[in-house]
Write a structure and sequence with these properties.
Layout (H helix, E strand, L loop, with lengths): L1 H21 L18 H11 L22 H6 L9 E3 L2 E3 L5 H14 L5 H26 L6 H21 L3 H25 L4 H18 L4 H4 L5 H10 L5 H29 L28 H12 L17 H4 L5 H4 L4 H9 L3 H21 L9 H20 L3 H26 L7 H4 L2 H23 L1 H4 L1
Helix pairs in contact: 1-5, 1-6, 1-20, 2-4, 5-6, 5-7, 5-17, 6-17, 6-18, 6-20, 7-8, 7-10, 8-11, 12-16, 15-17, 16-17, 18-20
Length: about 475
C-alpha cells in the first residue's frame, strides 16, 4: 500500500513538473512555429526525407551566394548584400542541417509519415524535456533503492525536481531548434545512465544485467546523433564497465554477450559516419565547419590549432565562478557561473574531498564513477571553448544534469557515513538548497535575452507566468512533505 502511495506521489509531482515546464513553451510566437525563421529545420529535414533527399531545399536562392570568395565570411556576405538561409550548413551549393539527425528519425519523421503534417519544433523540445524529467526521477529512485537507501524520500524528490529544473529551465524559455538538439541528447543520456546503473548495481542475474546494459549502450549511442558534446558523457560508462567486469565471471559466452551489448555504438556510429560522408565527403564532419552564421568556422582548422589556455581557463571561470551581480531591470538577476547561480552544485566536486564520502563511495565501488562525473563538466567546457566562438547560457545545459547526479551521489554517500542525529539537519540543508535552486530557475527564466518571451512580451505576462510557476513549485513542495508517510 505504501509503495502504491509513493508511486502515486512521484507520478503527481512528475506530472506537475512537466506541466510547469511545457506550458511556458507555448506562449512565444517565435518559438511555436508562427514566426519560425531558421528554427524549423528539423521539420523541413523530415519533409526532405519523405521526398527522398537529404538536403534542405528552398524555393529561392540568391545567385550572389555562389559568387562569393568565402561564403562563410559574415562580413563578406553583408558587404555584398547576399541573402542566405541563416544558421544552416552550406556545402557544394546545398543547404544541410548540421544538428544531429536522430531526433528527426525517431520523432519528426515518423509523425510526418503517419499524420502527413509537421511535428512542430517546440513540441520536440517538450517531448524530450518530459522524458528527461521522468528519467531523472527514475534514476534517483533506482539509486536510492539499490545504492543509497539512507536518502529520505522527501530529499530524493526535491533533488530530482531541482535538478530537472536546473537542466530544463532554458528549454522552457527557448524551445527552438537549439533546445531540440540539447534536450534530445539529455533525454538519451539520462536513460542511458539509468540502464547502466541498473546493469551494474541493481541486477543480480547476468541476463538482466546484459539487457539493461544493451539499452544503456543504445541510448548512449543515439546521443551522438543528437548533440555530440553531451554524448561525451558516455565516458562515464568506462568506470561502470570496470565494476561490471569485476562482478562477472569471464567466459567465451560472457564476451559474446558483451559484443552484443556494445553493438549499438558500432551500428549507430557507422550510420552517423555514412550520413556525414554522403553530405560532406568525410565521416567525421557533422556540418559545424560549414555554418552560415557570424563566425567563419572553416578557418578554425583542426582542434589542436584552436587550443588556447587563456581561452580555456577563461571559459572555466565563466562557466563556474563568474559573478555578474544584480541589475536594475526586472527580474534583477543575471546569468552567472554554475556555482554562483546554483550553490548546491559545489558539492559535486567539494564533497569528494570529505573522507567519509570517499570511504562510502569506495565501499559501493562508485568512487571512480563519482570522480568521472566531477571531471566531465570540465571536459565538456574545454571542448565547447575549442569548438565555439563564445559560450552562452544554453551551453551550460550540457553539464548541469551531470552535476545534479553527482550531488545526489555525494549526498547519498555522505548520509551513509553520518551519525543518525546529524542526518535530519543535513537533509534540511539539502532541501533548502533544492528549494533555492528551484526559485533561481524561475528568476533565470524571466531574464530577457535572445528572442525569449521576456524580451518580447509585457511585464504583466511574465509576472503571471512566474506566479504560476511559483504555485506549481509550492504544490510540489507540499507533495514532497507527504513522501515520508509513504515510506
Amino acid at each position: 500500500m505504501k509503495q502504491i502511495k509513493s508511486w502515486s506521489l512521484q507520478s503527481t509531482i512528475i506530472l506537475l513538473l512537466i506541466m510547469m515546464c511545457v506550458a511556458p513553451m507555448t506562449v512565444n510566437p517565435s518559438m511555436i512555429g508562427i514566426r519560425a525563421s531558421h528554427k524549423d529545420q528539423y521539420e523541413k529535414l523530415a519533409e526532405s526525407f519523405v521526398e527522398g533527399h537529404i538536403d534542405l531545399q528552398y524555393g529561392y536562392w540568391d545567385p550572389k551566394l555562389f559568387e562569393l570568395n568565402n561564403p562563410y565570411d559574415y562580413d563578406e556576405r553583408v558587404g555584398e548584400g547576399v541573402y542566405c538561409q541563416w544558421d544552416h550548413a552550406f556545402y557544394n551549393n546545398h543547404y544541410y542541417m548540421y544538428f544531429g539527425v536522430v531526433p528527426v528519425l525517431i520523432l519528426f519523421l515518423p509523425f510526418r509519415m503517419i499524420f502527413g503534417v509537421r511535428f512542430l519544433t517546440f513540441l520536440g523540445t517538450a517531448v524530450f524535456s518530459s522524458l528527461f524529467i521522468i528519467g531523472i526521477f527514475q534514476l534517483f529512485q533506482l539509486m536510492k533503492k539499490s545504492i543509497f537507501p539512507d536518502i529520505p524520500e522527501k530529499t530524493r524528490l526535491l533533488m530530482a525536481t531541482a535538478f530537472s529544473l536546473a537542466g530544463m529551465w532554458y528549454a522552457m524559455d527557448c524551445p527552438t531548434i537549439y533546445c531540440v538538439a540539447i534536450t534530445s541528447a539529455l533525454c538519451m543520456e539520462i536513460w542511458s545512465m539509468f540502464f547502466y546503473v541498473k546493469a551494474v548495481w541493481a541486477s543480480d542475474k547476468e541476463t538482466d544485467a546484459m539487457k539493461a546494459a544493451f539499452l544503456g549502450a543504445l541510448f548512449g549511442a543515439l546521443a551522438f546523433g543528437c548533440r555530440p558534446t553531451i554524448a561525451l558523457a558516455n565516458l562515464l560508462a568506462v568506470p561502470m564497465f570496470i565494476v561490471f567486469l569485476r562482478k562477472r565471471k569471464m567466459s567465451a559466452r560472457f564476451w559474446g554477450r558483451m559484443l552484443f551489448v556494445i553493438s549499438p555504438y558500432v551500428i549507430v556510429g557507422i550510420g552517423l559516419m555514412y550520413y556525414n560522408y554522403i553530405r560532406f565527403g568525410t565521416p567525421f564532419e557533422f556540418g559545424q565547419a560549414y555554418q552560415l552564421t557570424i563566425t567563419d568556422q572553416t578557418a578554425y582548422g583542426n582542434m589542436a590549432d584552436n587550443i588556447s589556455w587563456s581561452v580555456i581557463f577563461g571559459s572555466l571561470k565563466e562557466n563556474y565562478f563568474d559573478w555578474k551581480g544584480l541589475c536594475w531591470n526586472f527580474p534583477y538577476f543575471q546569468f552567472s557561473g554554475a556555482f554562483i547561480n546554483f550553490p548546491i552544485f559545489i558539492l559535486s566536486i567539494a564533497g569528494l574531498f570529505i573522507p567519509t564520502v570517499g570511504k562510502q563511495l569506495r565501499n559501493r565501488r562508485m568512487f571512480a564513477f563519482a570522480i568521472c562525473m566531477a571531471c566531465m563538466p570540465v571536459i565538456i567546457t574545454v571542448l565547447d571553448a575549442i569548438w565555439v566562438p563564445w559560450l552562452t547560457e544554453r551551453y551550460r545545459m550540457d553539464f548541469y544534469w551531470i552535476m545534479g547526479i553527482a550531488v545526489f551521489v555525494v549526498c547519498g554517500a555522505w548520509l551513509a557515513g553520518m551519525k543518525q542525529e546529524k542526518r535530519k539537519t543535513f537533509c534540511r540543508c539539502i532541501n533548502a538548497l533544492c528549494v533555492y535552486t528551484m526559485l533561481v530557475c524561475v528568476l533565470l527564466y524571466a531574464i530577457p535575452y535572445e528572442d525569449n518571451i521576456t524580451a518580447k512580451s509585457p511585464l504583466w505576462l511574465i509576472i503571471l507566468i512566474m506566479a504560476a510557476m511559483s504555485l506549481w513549485l509550492l504544490n510540489i513542495y507540499r507533495l514532497t512533505g507527504k513522501a515520508e508517510e509513504a515510506c
